[in-house]
Amino acid sequence: MNLIIDIGNTVAKVAAFCGDELQEVVYTSNQTLEDLEAFVRKYTFEQAIVATVVDLSAEASKVLERLSIPLLCLDRSTPLPIENLYETPHTLGYDRIAAVVGAQASSPERDLLVIDAGTCITYEFLDAAGRYHGGNISPGMQMRFTALHRQTARLPLVAPEGRLPEMGKDTETAIRAGVLLGLKYEIQGYIEAMKYKYPQLLVFLTGGTDFSFDTNLKSIIFADRFLVLKGLNRILNYNNDKA
After folding, report:
1. What is the pLDDT of residues 114-128, one digit of tens each?
2. Are 80 and 92 in contact (CB under 8 A)?
3. Which residues belong to the active site?
């Protein structure tokens, strides 16, 4: 079995895979990994991979050092089952490349747009030949709400839950509609532009934010909350096979 550790900007995900099948996922602190050791005791793991987009704390580092199984630390030198054309691979977030690998495992030999709607929203493109061309980074939902509040004198901090008219009827609904509908139109715009250029495009949507789309787009969109974890599992198996 494989142990997958994905340390993100806000939380860490720890997962167990048997082959390609996801068995369980738990969420824990990205600073302490406090639930990792208990999780490891539940399964007989043979190998592990860790990917982080934050600098590891001393406490988290010690938890990883205590693992008794081989641990692959994903970095820019780790062999990948795709061709990486990013010009600065040392600056590429490991969650971004893992999401692309996870999508390609599900739909090989297809042009893919991978959208991860988390702390940030990322847009990644992989062509049918398995070449990753790069992607874009945009502020995520909560980041937009927070920026409107902190970088203005009088705008309040608005929650995403609540009344959502097409055009705001007061300051609260104006901010909520501006952020949520803006995100929706941004994502739809990316999909439509890429679909025009690559008619056989498939879209994978992952991350913690849910969006609805019109019927013309639904048929090419596949939602998968665990795409990054699946990609990390594939990278781990790929490296084990090469070894």
Report:
1. 999 988 999 999 999
2. no
3. 95
User: Which residue(s) pair with 14 in the sheet?
Assistant: 5, 26
User: What's the mean pLDDT when you consider all of the chain?
Assistant: 94
Asked if residue 241 and residue 224 are part of one domain, the reply reads: yes
Can you give the pTM of this predicted structure?
0.90
pLDDT at 188 over 70: yes
Summarize pLDDT for 38-97 with one digit per residue, the tens: 999 999 999 999 999 999 999 999 999 999 999 999 999 999 999 999 999 999 999 999
Q: What is the CATH number of the domain that holds 50?
A: 3.30.420.40
Q: Give the structural domain span for 158.
A: 76-243
Which stretches does DSSP call E strand in the chain? 2-7, 12-18, 21-28, 47-52, 71-73, 83-84, 112-117, 120-126, 131-139, 202-207, 221-223
Cβ pair 127, 113 in contact under 8 A: no
Let me know if 2 is exposed, middle or buried by CB neighbors in 10 A (0-12, 13-18, 19+): buried
- The runs of H, that is alpha helices, within 162-211 are 171-197
Residue 232 CB-half CA count within 13 A: 30
3-state helix, strand, coil in the chain (%, to 5): 35, 25, 40
